[in-house]
Design brief:
Layout: E1 18-22, E2 31-35, E3 38-44, E4 50-54, E5 68-70, E6 73-75, E7 82-83, E8 89-91, E9 108-109, E10 111-114, E11 117-120, H1 132-135, E12 142-151, H2 154-161, H3 167-170, E13 183-191, E14 194-200, H4 208-213, E15 217-225, E16 229-236, E17 241-250, E18 255-265, H5 271-302, H6 317-326, E19 336-341
Antiparallel strand pairs: 1-11, 2-3, 3-4, 4-9, 5-6, 6-7, 7-8, 10-11, 12-18, 13-14, 13-19, 14-15, 15-16, 16-17, 17-18
The structure holds FE2/S2 (inorganic) cluster and fe (ii) ion.
The site of FE2/S2 (inorganic) cluster (FES) has 8 residues, from loops.
Length: 342
């Protein structure tokens, strides 16, 4: 049942949950999903419950995701074999009905639906619960969802989201301005699978997005939890809060899936306004990130095997490397406090 680990991904990564699709993407058709270089098919049974199977018909190995759903069962496009949500063969066209069906089963994998997302664990054994980071925001505060696939190793894509020091250049004027840098106390805390970075600054940010949509901040923090969940949290002096959550999952070593959501508490932010006013700006920022990550990947390919340099402000890189390259919980020795000019 458990797929053999590939040399590129530590086997510990397989025992965790990954956000792989928006729940509303999965309706009446099977949905192919690649995660950690493994191929799955997602579908809904007759009651609407989502399930996941290996995307391989055991007969002649055609992708089941190329077939269709019949009464919640997956039908292979080649000879019409049908499989139930448990992966068991349920129909074999051409078979003598007087004979029992052969006991053939497609491997199945745990799948959960939560707060608009589908979460897959690519291994039969592993942690039962979704990351707390994905469970602790109230679904009623969700204002927006978004999905993308970017070129880049998950390590580089996650670092980009959690890295404040690129924003003055890649998003110059949009998020921050180099000419208006001020000192900011940064504290990195590590508690097992959870990592928190607090930015204690002056309550304002020097970019267009802040000026148009925000008010004075009480605090800004970045949260990260294994395997790929992260959240930027903005707490305001009037008691309101905005959280941008991004859940990352590696498609393979060169492409990363991102499922994002925006949760708002105590601020005027109806869904239509977020979509019409805020989202176009954030989408532009996202395109800037996707472009720099693609350029980074292309150049890393030209200099294959070369190691990146590190400065003291790259606080999350060692944490992410512990996990994605070595499959171990982050070393608490990475915790630190420092001053950055942001
Ligand atoms: S290949 Fe799937 S039924 Fe034959
Ligand atoms: Fe960015």
């Amino acid at each position: 049942m458990t797929p053999a680990p590939t040399p590129d991904w530590p086997s510990a990564l397989l025992t965790h949950w990954y956000a792989v699709a928006r729940a509303d993407q999965l309706r009446r058709k099977p949905l192919p999903i690649t995660l950690l270089d493994r191929h799955f098919v997602l579908a809904r049974d007759a009651d609407g419950s989502a399930y996941a199977l290996e995307d391989r018909c055991p007969h002649r190995q055609v992708a089941l995701s190329a077939g269709c759903l019949r009464d919640g069962q997956l039908q292979c496009p080649y000879h019409g074999w049908r499989f139930g949500a448990d992966g068991l063969l349920r129909d074999l066209p051409g078979h003598d009905p007087a004979q029992p069906l052969p006991a053939i089963r497609v491997p199945g994998f745990p799948l959960q639906e939560h707060d608009g997302l589908l979460w897959l664990r690519p291994c039969a054994e592993g942690s039962e619960q979704l990351p707390a980071l994905a469970r602790e925001l109230a679904p009623g505060q969700r204002r927006f969802e978004w999905q993308a696939q970017w070129r880049g190793h998950v390590l580089d894509v996650m670092e980009n989201f959690l890295d404040a020091l690129h924003t003055h250049y890649v998003h110059a004027g949009w998020l921050r301005r180099h000419s208006q840098r001020r000192p900011c106390q940064v504290a990195l805390d590590i508690d097992g699978e959870r990592v928190r970075v607090d930015y204690r600054a002056h309550g304002e940010q020097s970019g267009l997005v802040y000026r148009l949509f925000e008010s004075r901040r009480l605090g800004e923090s970045a949260h990260f939890q294994l395997p790929g969940s992260s959240r930027l949290q903005y707490d305001y002096r009037d008691g309101s809060q905005v959280c941008i959550s991004l859940h990352f999952s590696p498609v393979d070593g060169r492409n990363t899936r991102i499922l994002a959501s925006l949760h708002v508490r105590g601020r005027w932010a109806p869904r239509w306004a977020v979509r019409a006013l805020l989202w176009p700006l954030l989408a532009h920022v996202g395109r800037q990130d996707a472009a720099i990550l693609a350029a980074q990947q292309d150049n890393m390919a030209r200099f294959a095997g070369r190691r990146p340099a590190r400065m003291h402000g790259d606080v999350l890189r060692p944490v992410l490397e512990d996990w994605w390259l070595h499959g171990r919980t982050p070393d608490p020795a990475h915790a630190r406090q420092l001053t950055l000019w942001l």
